Automatic annotation (TrEMBL):
The record marks 398 as: Critical for specifying symmetric addition of methyl groups. The lineage of its organism: Eukaryota, Viridiplantae, Streptophyta, Embryophyta, Tracheophyta. This is Protein arginine N-methyltransferase. It comes from Phaseolus coccineus (Scarlet runner bean). Pfam families: PRMT5, PRMT5_C, PRMT5_TIM. Belongs to the class I-like SAM-binding methyltransferase superfamily.
Length: 707
């Protein structure tokens, strides 16, 4: 995986370009289209004798095709696997499941399930060849890597009271992982923990993870959580499978190569409970054939809730694995009757067809989502607007956000109509100042508002970046605005305006509203605004929300220092679970009511975790803003009121040095400060309940915004 340094893009609310995130797909195989109970395609090829089986298999895996085509989606969720039983003829396993079955990869046992190290020693076979599923030479390295997930023996119990079983389990686990690593497998599926204690199991897995950096370990976890209304709280804690996962990952210190494979059962927990998992490192969902219902044609289908869950998995790059035996014989029989007489259709193909059908009926990714794909869960440093000058590419990205400028134009239009009655429209000229004019998009929006309303404007475009001023001059000349627009190359805080403004327009908002120092900048500019002047925006409020965000936490943790845990990041949140509704934090109003009003702030927030959610892990807080531009014209990114199709801002993420576990129905108490010094502004934050965290970023030691 790329280092966390590559994950940190500089600079931007959003960066102008990004490195693509690491993709770890298990590639697909055949050019088929999955539809429920569709006729099998004629993919027959001459099957050579066993001596040439490998070359035939190489021909099969050279044709690659996922579940289907969905515009813009290139994620791992396009690929579907199948869980198989032990077979020491691996070429045949791949041929049957990949060619005949059209699956993209297999989850296959690596070791004969009857093998026990202690029995082998008693039989005098301790120095013999281990009973693996064939030599590494039976498949090519790329076939092992791309089409096989190793399935660790399900009998192992590393926390057994039986010492012989425990030692056998430890030995076998290490032997199988070592063999998988030798084969260059991308991942191995670990059996679910047995019983309530998993300390020794986790200890051995953690030892293995410390010694390898090229394999993912998927811990099998059944998707179970009892209904809180029908069971007492004590047993919820014991039976909620999330608790089992949480115990295991805590023992393994949140290791980045430890992931989850969810076993989907016929009964699903509540929607809130399911939502927790989208912030966890879930790599696969194992869908047993027992989950499927039967439609009127005798074919497999899923309940509406299961369909919604599978769609959620598709949207979060989670691969589906079909497991179990066919329980829809009619569908398999009809498929075989309709297939080529010389070929035998895979008994699980109808289930694969149905999963493909669910995938293909999903809506295409909108254009904005496709643009943002590369930014999903990528940490970026926020802008330092007063310390740094933006680059042309960053300006260009912001200027493409048409929605934002439409909102500004609407706000200016309303302000002009309020400021100038119709009877004075031809005689009165409004002085409008754009502070932080950049390359001119707000100047253009203001002039378009004047044209739209029939009002006269005199515009001052104030910009501190000398490079952007060059572009501004070129724009004014190109558009013929010389008589209307005056360009001022200066920091708004130090400019002495020749006259006072009726309207002050700025776009200094950050992802958290005030985190790009809009209050400090507008304080400096307020002196050249008329007493009854209008500021656009007139106010803005920051919002905070607790989230489960395992990937973000591990990306920060990879830096192995305090500084990165005390830094706020701009990020396109995707693989996160939002644990409670967001709450308002700080509000700033312009023009300021009093010159002596401080920009320092403090807020205590109490978030209640819904009981039906179950326990959850808080890795940090997502921050948003909502701004009132003028009267009823607003823009923002707070989820419940977000301006549609606007992409200039992603959320901001405040990490916690140590994640906090919250119980169902519990209250999470958070303290948040905005601190101001003579040369910088910074945030401090901590959790006070249910457990105490340190105060993060004390005195702005790790992260600040320079004045």
């Amino acid at each position: 995986m790329p280092s966390a340094d590559n994950n940190l893009l500089q600079p931007g609310r959003i960066a102008a370009s990004s490195t693509k995130p690491y993709q770890n797909p298990l590639p697909p195989l055949s050019e088929h289209t999955h539809t429920p109970c569709s006729k099998s395609l004629d993919l027959s090829i001459y099957i050579a004798p066993n001596s040439t089986k490998l070359s035939v298999l190489e021909r099969v895996v050279s044709a690659k095709m996922p579940l289907g085509e969905r515009s813009g989606d290139k994620s791992e969720s396009r690929y579907c696997g199948v869980e198989t039983d032990f077979n020491d003829d691996m070429p045949q396993v791949l041929h049957f499941n990949l060619y005949t079955g059209s699956f993209d990869f297999v989850v296959a046992p690596l070791m004969d399930p009857s093998y026990r190290p202690s029995l082998a020693q008693k039989d005098g076979l301790g120095s013999g060849v281990l009973p693996f599923a064939g030599s590494d030479l039976v498949l090519s390295p790329s076939q092992w890597s791309s089409h096989v997930v190793g399935k660790i023996s399900s009998w192992i119990d590393l926390d057994s009271e039986d010492e012989t079983l425990r030692i056998d389990s430890e030995t076998t686990l290490k032997q199988e992982i070592a063999w998988a690593s030798h084969l260059s497998l991308q991942a191995c599926l670990l059996p679910a923990p047995k019983g309530t204690s998993c300390a020794n199991y986790a200890r051995c897995v953690n030892q293995i993870l410390q010694g390898t950096n090229n394999i993912q370990l998927w811990l099998r976890i059944p998707l179970v959580k009892p209904d809180v209304d029908s069971i007492d709280a004590k047993s919820v804690t014991l039976d909620d499978s999330w608790e089992s996962w949480n115990s295991f990952r805590l023992l393994c210190e949140h290791h980045g190569q430890l992931s989850v494979a969810l076993d989907i059962l016929s009964t699903l927990p509540s929607t809130n409970s399911l939502g927790r998992w989208f912030g966890e490192p879930v790599r696969a969902a194992i869908l047993n054939t027992d989950c499927f219902l039967t439609n009127s044609h005798g074919c497999p289908c899923l309940s509406k809730r299961h369909q919604m869950l599978i769609s959620g998995f598709f949207n979060h790059s989670i691969q589906i694995i079909i497991s179990g035996n066919s329980v829809h014989p009619k569908a398999s029989m009809d498929a075989n009757n309709n297939s080529d007489k010389d070929s035998q259709r895979h008994p699980l193909r109808p289930y694969l067809d149905y999963v493909g059908y669910l995938y293909q009926r999903m809506d295409p990714l909108p254009e904005q989502e496709r643009f943002e794909l590369g930014y999903r869960d990528f940490l970026q440093s926020p802008l330092q607007p007063l310390m740094d000058n933006l680059e042309a590419q960053t300006y260009e990205t912001f200027e493409k956000d048409a929605v934002k400028y439409i909102q500004y134009q609407r706000a200016v239009s309303k302000a002009l109509l309020d400021r100038v009655p119709d009877e004075e429209a031809s005689a009165k000229t409004i002085v409008l100042m754009v502070v932080g004019a950049g390359r001119g998009p707000l100047v253009r929006a203001s002039l378009q508002a004047a044209e739209e309303t029939g009002r006269r404007l005199k515009v001052y475009a104030v910009e501190k970046n000398p490079n952007a001023v060059v572009t501004l001059h070129a724009l004014v000349k190109l558009e013929g605005w010389e008589d209307t627009v005056t360009i001022v190359s200066s920091d708004m805080r130090h400019w002495n305006a020749p006259e006072k403004a009726d309207i002050l327009v700025s776009e200094l908002l950050g992802s958290f509203g005030d985190n790009e120092l809009s209050p400090e900048c507008l304080d400096g500019a307020q002196r050249f605004l008329q007493e009854d002047g209008i500021s656009i925006p007139s106010s803005y409020t920051s919002f905070l929300q607790p989230v489960t965000a395992s990937k973000l936490y591990n990306d920060v943790k990879a830096h192995k220092d305090l500084v990165h845990f005390e830094t706020a990041y701009v990020v396109k949140l995707h693989n996160v679970a939002r644990l409670a509704p967001s709450q308002p934090v700080f509000t700033f109003t312009h023009p300021k009511r009093s010159e002596h009003e401080s920009n320092q702030r403090f807020k205590k927030l109490n978030f209640v975790i819904p009981s039906e959610t179950g326990s959850a892990m808080v890795h940090g807080f997502a921050g948003y803003f909502d701004a009132t531009l003028y009267k009823d014209v607003h823009l923002g990114i707070e989820p419940s009121t977000a301006t549609p199709n606007m992409f200039s801002w992603f959320a901001i993420f405040f990490p916690l040095r140590a994640p906090i576990c919250v119980g169902p129905g519990s209250t999470l108490e958070v303290h948040f400060w905005r601190c101001c010094g003579s040369t910088k502004v910074w945030y401090e934050w901590c959790v006070a309940s249910p457990s105490q965290s340190p105060i993060h970023n004390s005195n702005g030691r790790s992260y600040w915004v320079g004045l």
